[in-house]
Each structure stands twice: as structure tokens, then as C-alpha cells.
Amino acid sequence: MNTLKEIQKANQKKTKETNSKDAYYGCGILLLIVLVVWSFSLCSKASEKRESRISYEYKYNEIKDFLSNLQPLSHYDLNQKMEEIDALQKDMQEENVQSKLIDFWLIKNLVNYHATLYEVGTVVRDWETDEEISRNTVEKRIIYTAFKGDSLTYIDKVANNTQKRAKRLYEKHYWPKSECMAIAERKVFIGMNKDQLLISWGRPRDINRTGTAYSTHEQWCYGDFGPYIYLEDGVVTSWQD
Asked: Does the N-terminal or the C-terminal CB of the chain have fewer CB atoms within 10 Å?
């Protein structure tokens, strides 16, 4: 028959074994939770990287399709696309994203292709019509890194003193060229303002004004018996010789 001490000793041993098992199971559960969280984190990061890769591939294909078009591209277009390519490459490097579908060597060569034919020379054009009168250009083989944009020098041909006066008016006031030509030819036209009329015909001998609640009417007299120019709110509406 077991004594009381032996029974207590057996119970203590049993309790100790139970506690050891509980601690073991507790550690196992905790480790399992850590593994699950870690796996979820890895899956989440992998998913984000996959989404980034797909986004970069879409952007790459968008640029490639634009550059694959055989139409001539302006200096602005080439600069813009090269900046987009450099930004795409930098972002992928910083995020450590790789894709077998993205070839930066290929896409930069497409930019070089568009920069290959490069015109250098002078264009002479009529000032009033912008019509090209003559052109002296040559073509050079060049790559994008040496591409400086349109080097064509435009020279406006001024045929006579009237065009010279009109050109000065255009450069000073930015009025339409047709209006500048009319003013340089000392003409009056419907819609011209006071400043234009003063330049074209000079100051009148007399000005008769009539005011209403809504507008101001003026008669500019350039002689005792005309001609007369009629203005409403500072704009020419009609004239009388």
C-alpha cells in the first residue's frame, strides 16, 4: 500500500509532466501563428511585387507602341519618352522588380531610331504668309544623346518697307498679321481699336462724343468735310469719306 508521501510525489510528477506538455503545446501554437503571419506577409509582398511588375510592363508596352510608330517625332516627344524610360528603369531598380518582358536596350534604340535623321540648315519664309520660299538642309546620322532638337534657322523675308512696318507692329503688339499689314498700308477696317486707328491715320482734327447709359459713340473728323470714322466703345464700326 502506497504511503501518503509516495502519493504526493506521484501527483507532483504527474503535474510537472502535464505542465511540460502544456508548455510544449503552447510553444508549438505560438510558432505556428508566427509561421502563418510570416507566410501571409511573404504572400502579400509577392502579390505587391507582381502587381508592380504588371504595372511596369504595361507602361513599357505603352512607350514601346508609341515609339514603334513610324511617324516622325518632335524633339519634345523624344525628350518626354526618354524621361519616361529613365524614370521607369529607376523605379524598377529601387523596388528590385525584374521582368523578362522589359528590354530597356531595345526601347532606347527605338528612341535613337527616331533621332537618326536630323535636319540642319536654314529656311527662308515669307513674313506675312509663313510660306516657305527656300530651304537649305542636310541630313546627319545621330543618336539621341547628341540630339539637340530642331536646328533649323528660320529667316523671315521682308519684301518692302510696308512689310517692315507691319513686322515691327506685330513684334510689338502681337496683333494679327493681316491687321498689321492693313495698318502699315494706312487702311481702316471694321473692328480696329483706337490704338490701331491712331497708328494708321494719326490723331483726328476733332472728336465728337455722344454718351448713353450703355455705350459711348465717337465721330473722329480728319478734315472739315471728312473723312469721318465712327467708333463705339473704342472700336471702329463704320466710316464716311
From this structure: N
At residue 106, the 3 state secondary structure works out as helix
The domain of 150 spans: 116-157
* Strand locations in the chain (E): 117-126, 132-141, 153-157, 206-211, 216-221, 228-232, 235-240
Q: Helix H segments across 69-146?
A: 75-95, 104-115
Q: What is the pLDDT of residues 46-97, one digit of tens each?
A: 677 888 888 889 999 999 999 888 776 777 788 888 899 999 999 989 988 8
Q: Do 27 and 105 reside in the same domain of the chain?
A: yes
Q: What is the four-CA torsion angle of 172, 178, 184, 187, rounded to 10 degrees?
A: -130
Residues 6+ apart with CB under 8 A from 54: none
The secondary structure of residue 152, as a DSSP letter, is P
Burial of residue 33, with CB atoms counted within 10 A of its CB: 0-12 exposed, 13-18 middle, 19 or more buried: exposed
In angstroms, how far is CA 236 from the centroid of its own chain?
40
Question: In this structure, are 64 and 124 located in the same domain?
Answer: no
The pLDDT value recorded for residue 213 is 86
